[in-house]
Write a structure and sequence with these properties.
single chain, five-stranded mixed sheet, 14 helices, elongated, disordered N terminus, Scs7, transmembrane helix, fatty acid 2-hydroxylase activity, fatty acid metabolism
Length: 375
């Protein structure tokens, strides 16, 4: 199925007056030339905030698409086509609008099956030649066969849910509501913070520089160790995102392609799938446990655990910010507003740069900063 209406399908025409009526959060239409788009479902996702679109609803946004201040990428334009609903008839008049709609529009009364098919079409393929999978079947076992076409395909985002596995149990374990992350991890952060402070208060935790020289780790140093743990997490976050999530699996390796898609590729293919924007606690526990064991083996208990709990808190903040960057509407000019625009550019235009999520700090020394657009 194609995203755009096929030539054989009945083409819908709308008068300018009819398009102008759809100027609310509940029904927002815009124009690109004579093409009409229903972007109601995209308002919350728009990186510039929904207000920018609402101020231009019912009007031609061609100048805004080309910029300045921002020239939209090819992926953004391809994404836009998912919301195409028909054409503008400039020849229509207020008096003959009703006749025009009756003559050229699809009838208002449609069956439930037709409505479902229409919804699938709106969120389906952008380009039939590059969309090489069967969306009616789980994708996990299909993507490995894409070979050298996988990298291009996975970085052409679509606005539709993805099913990874046929088995309902496995599928359910790949989805997580955002609030589960703080529910699961914050009690552990609070408990370990109290535990570390009381342990350091006993004044028995010493960091040995040499076999003969050591430094007492005082309880008042706990907040600084905690903050350093959060800072250390930001570096780990950058490294995981860049070197693991954005590895380029060999085109001939079926299993590495599948692994990449399960870890991160599915997020780039469907970036606004709200059920897969945070890491499932069951899988995160494996990584969290590994970091805890490493720190406990290499550092004194009080120091290692204090670093760990700071890093764990950093992870929770990371997951929450990541979810907000996709679904939140930060105030223009705020720190999160800049992060949201930066992260959306990573998804739609610069997939090999902009790996920082909670901060862009590490992109600078590693030369992966997303360049500013110039006109």
């Amino acid at each position: 199925m194609k995203n755009k209406m096929s030539p054989s399908a009945s083409l819908r025409f709308f008068s300018e007056k009819e398009v102008a009526k759809h100027c609310t959060k509940d029904s927002c239409w815009v124009l690109l030339g004579t093409r009409v788009y229903d972007v109601t479902g995209f308002l919350r996702m728009h990186p510039g905030g929904e207000a920018l679109i609402l101020r231009r609803c019912g009007r031609d946004i061609s100048r805004e698409i080309e910029g300045p201040p921002h020239r939209h990428s090819e992926n953004a334009r391809r994404w836009m086509e998912q919301y195409y609903i028909g054409e503008l008839d400039r020849d229509s008049t207020h008096e003959d609008t009703g006749t025009l709609r009756q003559r050229k529009k699809i009838p208002e009364s449609t069956t439930e099956e037709e409505e479902e098919t229409s919804a699938i079409n709106k969120c389906s393929k952008v380009d039939e030649e590059t969309d090489l999978v069967d969306w009616r079947k789980p994708l996990a076992w299909q993507v490995g066969y894409l070979g050298e076409k996988y990298d291009t395909w996975v970085h052409q985002p679509v606005d539709r849910p993805i099913r990874l596995f046929e088995n309902d149990f496995f599928e359910a374990n790949t989805k997580t509501s955002w609030y589960m992350v703080p529910i699961v991890w914050m009690p552990l952060v609070i408990f370990l913070s109290w535990y570390c402070y009381t342990l350091l208060a006993q004044e028995r935790t010493r960091l040995f520089i040499t076999s003969d020289y050591s430094i007492l780790v005082h309880k008042y140093s706990f907040p600084f160790i905690f903050m350093f743990g959060m800072f250390l997490w930001s570096f780990i976050e950058y490294c995981i995102h860049r070197f693991v999530f954005h590895m380029r699996p060999p085109a001939h390796n079926y299993y590495l392609i599948m692994l990449h898609f399960l870890l991160h590729g599915q997020h780039h293919k469907s970036p606004f799938d709200g059920s897969r924007l945070v890491f499932p606690p069951s899988l995160a526990a494996i990584v969290v446990g590994a970091f805890y064991l490493i720190l406990r083996q290499t550092l004194p208990e009080g120091l290692g655990t204090s670093l760990f709990v700071g890093g764990l808190c950093g992870y929770v903040v990371y997951d929450m910010i990541h979810y907000y960057l996709h679904y939140g509407s930060p105030r223009k000019g705020s720190y999160l507003y800049g992060l949201k625009a930066y992260h959306v550019k990573h998804h739609f235009e610069h997939q090999r740069a902009g790996f920082g999520i909670t901060t862009t700090f590490w992109d600078y020394p590693f030369n992966t900063v997303i360049p500013e657009q110039t006109f």
